[in-house]
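Q: Fold this one first, please.
A: Sequence and structure below.
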Amino acid sequence: MYAAVTARYQAALMVPTEVLAEQHYAKLTKLFADFPVKISLLTGATTAAARKHIKADLASGATDIVIGTHALIQKDVDFANLGLVIIDEQHRFGVNQRKILQEKGLKPDLLAMTATPIPRTLAITAYGEMDVSTIDELPAGRQPITTSWVRKNQLREALATISTELAAGHQVFAITPLIAESEKVDLQNAEQLYEDLNKAFGDKYQVALLHGQMKNDEKDDIMRRFSQNEIQVLVSTTVVEVGVDVPNATVMMIFDADRFGLAQLHQLRGRVGRGRSAATAFWWQIRRTMPGSSA
């Protein structure tokens, strides 16, 4: 990005969620604090007045780097000289969406990033005539994440691991495919799991519920409190799939794991093990056996 800016080009970083966009914006603003680089943030939550100012700066070239969500590919967003397009979590975008952003510049360089080694990603790199760069080492200080498939008879063992991690001052994610109970499918839901975990751990630890139907202010408050370790157990749907960075979280429980895609499982597991402590991910299958299993 800095190389593009010093060559008098603009750089755009597109991400799938507002949370992730805000996270990148905060880090890049800090990183470029001592450099003559103007950075803007453009998402669906950007106010109309701010949006007008940002679009004008992008069109005039006053903004060097912009971080945004799908808001970047709206028709009224123009660039003076877009030279570098970076798409984070690229598997969350469609081919045409990536193409629209590229076409806002005159054949800009493209960097597509993903931490999810899924067949679709491999196909894009194999048939899209893209050079491939692989980071096959963990960041300094990080330890591998232990991943376990938990059956019903292993429930106590898994809960014991969770209790040990909580007692050590760490935090826990608990992910479900549903928000509320459904008459159509027999799956774990967030509301019931919240009640169960609150009964199990609520006397010692703070347990909270998070899902997509909540108001943005409420969701932001819960995530802020979880990030600051005011909440120790967070029961959630996949709204925490990307863009959530809580280094103190060491346990990821995923209930009815067969209901999630491979990319989602990779992303959810990536929410833990972001600090220097060992982390564990549980694929929790209580009601049914996994597909293809005789157990």
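Q: Good. Now the second chain.
A: Here it is, same layout.
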Amino acid sequence: MKETQEMVRSDVFAKCHQFTAAKEAIARGVYPYFQPLDDSEGNVVTLRGQQLIMIGSNNYLGLTTHPKVREAAITAIERYGTSCTGSRFLNGTLAIHHELDHRMAEFMGHEAAACFSTGYQANVGAISALVGKNDLLLADKEAHASIIDGSALAAGTLKRFRHNDLDHLEYILQGAKDYSGVLVAIDGIYSMGGDIAPLPAIVELCKRYGARLMLDDAHGLGVLGNGRGTAAHFGLEKEVDITMGTFSKSFASLGGVIAGSETVIHYIKHFARSMIFSASMPAANVCTVLACLDVIATEPDRVQRLWENTDYIRRRLTRLGYDLGNSESPIIPVIIGSNELTFAMWKSLIELGVYTNPVIAPAAPPGKQLLRTSYMASHTREQLSLAGDAFLAVRPLFEIGVKTPGLTEEMLREDDTQG
């Protein structure tokens, strides 16, 4: 009789017991994630009874509390209920889903569009459907995680080019002759750095080397191009092959959209697993986006106010000597450079009544840890001034690469009287 050899295997849960960093931060009182907000009015939130100025939200146009938007969501629940209880592929498509598809296609400058339950699912679904066995997905190093995750489900190959590095992009395109097709994926506005992709040059490279271009415009819609996005900002709506957008930012809802030619969108709708095997956007989310489209059309000054607020706070933070990286948008990172300082500064700002988002690896590379700040059309000048005062108050406490030492408080406050 053969002796049975006992199999030795490690516990799949072992990694869970070994992960202690978050609990250590909790014990020290500097853990910044999963904070339980008690209430939110957009630009002001309540955390454990304390009112805070919110400068960490993607609510760029401040539409989450707009009366018409709220009314649209409430009316939709009263008519359609709380869920579609099925995927768009089967029983989860309402007439309003088709209306939203058509209106988003028109808004984004494409022939057709398909709306998904989240922006993440939109990217994962489109990329996994389009990038086949002999194809190449060529993504910017700082492209959103959903683009990279989509490549994991795709049958093709993923390569990444250095962030906004046109020479590196061209180098890889030159060597991509053995692939059947190439899809270049970029963000319009990058979610951590706040910088804008050099879209005209990338469009030209894609044309020269026969590649298709996918633009993740999650942070560009509602912000650039009078709200219509990065391609509209550059006048290149007809030159981008497919555009992705989200509804959880400027559109005050939840969901995502892929827009492109009718033929490509038709194909994605039939092969995107994240659409076929997920329940569709609830009616309240759909009607919220439709209402936001109406508000953007009738209140174009919201985009202007967003940029006025952005310019004001950028001047203030720059004068305080903070390193804001290459930001060109309402996303303004304050680069700090270490986990410990990032968490400590976040906590100090909370105590001063300002909510920011601490970002460490892998979302920010080592030495570039940052506080991600972002601004809204609905911020008042008083709120932004108070936020600037908070950054002034913490400046002496943290040596974070301040560029202009020796400024007096009066000098630092001086630009409050400008603009």
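Q: Anything worth noting on the second one?
A: Residues 400-419 have pLDDT under 50 and may be disordered.
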